[in-house]
Amino acid sequence: MATRKNPIFDTATTLGKIFGFLGVSAICGVLVAGLLVPAAAVSGSTASGSIQFFDALPAELQVDPPSQNTTILAADGSKIASIYMENRTKVPLDQMSPFIKDAVIAIEDSRFYDHGGIDTTGIMRAVVSTARGNKQGASTITQQYVNNVINESLVAEGKDADVQLNGSKSVGTKLREMKLAIALEKKFSKEQILEGYLNIVFFNTDAYGIEAAAKLFFSTTAKDLTLPQAALLAGVVNSPSFYDPITNPDNAKARRDLVLGAMLAQDKIKQADYDAAVATPVTTQVTRPRQGCAYATTAPYFCDYVLQLLFNNPAYGATRDEREKRIMRGGMTITTTLDPNAQNVAQQQVDGSTGANPDKWGAALVSVQPNSGEIVAMAQNTVLLPQEGKFDQTQNFNVDVLDAKGNDLNGIGGFQPGSTMKPFTFAQWLNEGKSMNTTINGAVRRYSPNFPWRNTCPTPVNGSYDSSVSGSFDLQNSEPGFYRGMSVLYGLMNSVNTATFASAAQVDLCGIQGIVDATGIHGGLPTRDSTGKVSDPNPKVPMTTLANLIGSTQTAPLTMASAFATFANDGKYCEPIAITAVTDQSGATLPAQSSNCRDAVKPEVARGVAYAMQEVLNGGSGSLIRPALSTKNNFPVAAKTGTNDNNSSTWVVGYTTGLATAAWFGDPLGDQQRFGRNLTVNGKFYPSIDGYMIAGPQFTRFMSAIAPGYGTKPFPAPPSNLLGTQVQRPAAPAVPAPGNNNGGTGGGTGGNNSGSGSSGSGSGKDD
């Protein structure tokens, strides 16, 4: 049963309205006295107490810039993506249509230029109207601006639950807003207040501020809003959902026409303008904001990598949550190293490598400048958002787990690099002053657990190749003709496993470790403690574990490209960088990245490695990958192919003097243990895949198109003592055409067994 109302105080009755009017008038009188009359001039305890209460309220309002879109730019200034928590782009008042200024003032606060923050005339009018049963607001634009600033600050602090809407505010809260409005009027000009209001006010969940609203509803700018458009948007402010022109066009038109009527009554427009505007139908031309790296115009995974670098940077906040809020709300401009032209070619290559890809094989390519570490391209053959017929993947193939989206325990963290690790053993050979044309015994296939390795590191040597030991097997090459004497150079050119081990047996393994560390090579999967907390974000790749001489530890393509860039840069390693400048919405400079280079290997060693890896393309394992790139036919390029034991990870990593690139093709799923054999890729059947087959063309086509723009000078020649006496190059075993299996029968399971039984990766692969 409904509760019966007291007929005396029921505002639906005439007597009730009178009592309501008197009550509200009394309250209003107290407020007006407190706001307008000096305390000393007021008699009576009630008024005096009200004034004391009012005087005790805070008069300072911290007007921080509202949340704005952060923009990520390529090196040439073109836009990659926008990210935000609230879609807002601040514009100055002179970049707004005069119609929107006049329309908002007409409907929200016609006495805006006459009052000092609160409108007593409007308050009394609202009291009378409310007493008559027609609820009417009396907040000025300044008061609304104060309310928006307070709420924006609460949201920025994560206190969304404390946001108060007009209908739920107490008298104390309204008084506080009034005092703040008065104080604000003393501090800022009317134009500044109007500009702030129009930039902060909410129009739609996809539009905060007038610029975003103009873009959303009409695909235009605040400056170019027409009279009907401006009047409509001014009306939306009152109730963004009810007057939404997309979902409620009839409501929007009624409100728009009310705004136009107010503008006419206040002489802001002429009768003819009014008539034409009212006759204009409500039509929208919607442009939904496409925010985030998933909607990047180019390089979505590079975009996400840039964000992860900032999210992981303590200079932007004490916690990741603080950093994300600052970056997503801060209206920053982030300028990156990305070359859009290089990125476009890189994307074409990785997409073209796989075509229709129901089995979800992965392709990736990343390129850096050797003399600065700047990343110019980062591409992979997947999409961030699910799309029909596309391979969707959130993880970035090219970077470490901690630099990828999510930073979780299930990240990819790179792939087994296979024989692309062999140049580092070769580099230590040269580092010890040995000639690359020294003959070594490639017939040795057994390295027992007690083999006398030379190792000055405290880490013990781990692993063996010895079929006489239970669970182990002899080291294998891809071709029987490689078990013989050959030069160290020839062994690297043709990626001979036994040659790499014969070389390693004559150098300090600790020296190989030093070169690997100095050139930035590390595992892409961080070391974690029992609780899952990261204990080492960049774990070493231990070169005293024999499997790593031929590439068993997962390493990211960016890591490999940067390491090879050291040899292109005459022995100086430069850490990869993606961000050259960051500014906030005021233009102030924030922490970015800068080139961080160091001496890593001796210049003569770098030159010797470059000499040898040019020969890889001229007559070795890379001779089938577009030989037009070799020194014989075009500009000088040095490169190394690589394939892991089960053919699930295939590579070409190489460089010119101006650009270093890693191209990869393989299995990016789960534990990466699918065999790269008997598969069809892009309509072509492969009994097995090797580095030169798919990754190779990616590399050569990209470098052919992009490398000339970054410098392709000849590599400096190595000193004669490292060349030694050149011996006649013996004929290499015939290289099978793409699609034929040139793998051995090696044991191991994907190259991860580094214990006493085997060295795993590469046991049957020389590529």
Automatic annotation (TrEMBL):
Region: Disordered, residue numbers: 717-767
Gly residues composition bias: residue spans: 741-767
SUPFAM superfamilies membership: beta-lactamase/transpeptidase-like, Lysozyme-like
Residue ranges occupied by any Penicillin-binding protein transpeptidase domain in the UniProt entry: 365-656
Gene Ontology cellular component annotations, sorted alphabetically: outer membrane-bounded periplasmic space
InterPro entries noted in UniProt: Beta-lactam/transpept-like (IPR012338), Glyco_trans_51 (IPR001264), Glycosyltr_51/Transpeptidase (IPR050396), Lysozyme-like_dom_sf (IPR023346), PBP_transglycosylase (IPR036950), PCN-bd_Tpept (IPR001460)
One GO BP: regulation of cell shape
UniProt domain Glycosyl transferase family: residue ranges: 77-263
Family (UniProt): In the N-terminal section; belongs to the glycosyltransferase 51 family. In the C-terminal section; belongs to the transpeptidase family.
PANTHER family with a match to the protein in the record: BINDING PROTEIN TRANSPEPTIDASE, PUTATIVE-RELATED, PEPTIDOGLYCAN GLYCOSYLTRANSFERASE
Protein name: Transglycosylase domain-containing protein
Organism, as annotated: Arthrobacter cavernae
Lineage per the UniProt record: Bacteria, Bacillati, Actinomycetota, Actinomycetes, Micrococcales
